[in-house]
Design brief:
five-stranded mixed sheet; about 300 residues; single chain; mainly beta
Length: about 300
């Protein structure tokens, strides 16, 4: 358009304003500091580039929580391949602290007492215990008694308010308290009586102390012993003490030795004139039931 006899002129150009791409970075996310590399979720459209601390792959949007506890502002840049228009958006990723699961447990315990355990974890509010035998407990200071002997892997899972968890596993061996027991073969008989011993004690890591009346020994199984006679029936008390980490137990029995009869007698005179009444003294030992005399 031109003006007549003036310097005025005008023109008209039609322009199209293309909208910026709509970018959705997804919701803010929280990761625990001890997890592996994570994929950022629900961002749209794909094909852009992520920037910021902790980003491992800018194209796929992977984040490494090992950068440490804290709050990280991440930028997502995207250009529309059709229009060339580009825009950026932001999301926040929080790396939450991780609790430290830690406890001590005695390497050796007993079936008749609670396991000797101490929870020294930090940064947790929930404690889950697995005792290695399908038994479980919940709580900071549990009390658990194993019903059976064995070696068990005890696991503690410590969880904080952010849902982050840490795990520790330790082993313990559980044994039975001692139960002393033995048998004698035979338990009664005539002298000289040979007696064999059988150790029937129950328990683990047992130490023994035998008192056989005629000797003592710490062997698990004593050798056969010969018990001699007396003038009458003799009783030899036998004891076995079994000891381990969990306690002491004692078993008692008695060997009964019946004497062999030994004939013996004496007279008031060794030589005398007939007729004479002889006084005879029976000095037989061995508790004979009957006596047979032959006066020649």
């Amino acid at each position: 358009e031109f003006g007549s006899e003036t310097c005025y002129s005008s023109d008209e150009v039609q322009m199209e304003v293309i909208p910026l791409p709509v970018i959705d970075p997804g919701m803010d996310e929280t990761f625990c500091g001890n997890v592996s590399i994570q994929n950022l979720e629900t961002f749209d459209p794909i094909g852009g580039t992520w920037e910021g601390v902790g980003i491992v792959d800018p194209a796929t949007g992977t984040f490494d929580p090992s950068v440490g506890e804290g709050v990280y502002d991440l930028i997502y840049w995207y250009a529309d391949p059709l229009t060339g228009c580009a825009d950026t958006t932001q999301k926040t990723v929080t790396v939450a602290p991780v609790p430290n699961a830690d406890f001590t447990i005695a390497p050796l315990g007993c079936t008749d007492a609670p396991a000797d355990i101490e929870n020294i974890s930090t940064g947790a509010t929930i404690y889950l215990w697995e005792w290695g035998n399908s038994g479980t407990s919940v709580g900071a200071d549990p009390s658990y008694t194993y019903p059976d002997e064995g070696i068990f892997d005890v696991q503690l899972i410590a969880i904080n308010d952010a849902g982050c968890e840490d795990t520790l596993m330790l082993s313990t061996e559980i044994i039975n308290p001692p139960m002393a027991s033995f048998s004698l073969t035979p338990v009664e008989g005539c002298a000289p009586l040979e007696v064999a011993f059988t150790n029937n004690s129950i328990g683990q890591y047992l130490e023994y102390e035998w008192d056989l009346s005629i000797l003592t020994t710490q062997d698990a199984l004593p050798a056969n012993q010969i018990y001699t006679q007396g003038d009458d029936v003799l009783e030899y008390p036998i004891s076995l003490i079994a000891t381990n980490f969990c306690g002491v137990s004692e078993a008692l029995d008695t060997v009964v030795v019946l004497p062999q009869p030994i004939a013996g007698f004496g007279t008031d005179l060794d030589e005398f004139c007939s007729p004479w009444t002889v006084n005879i003294n029976n000095i037989s030992v061995g508790n004979p039931d009957t006596n047979e005399w032959d006066f020649g």
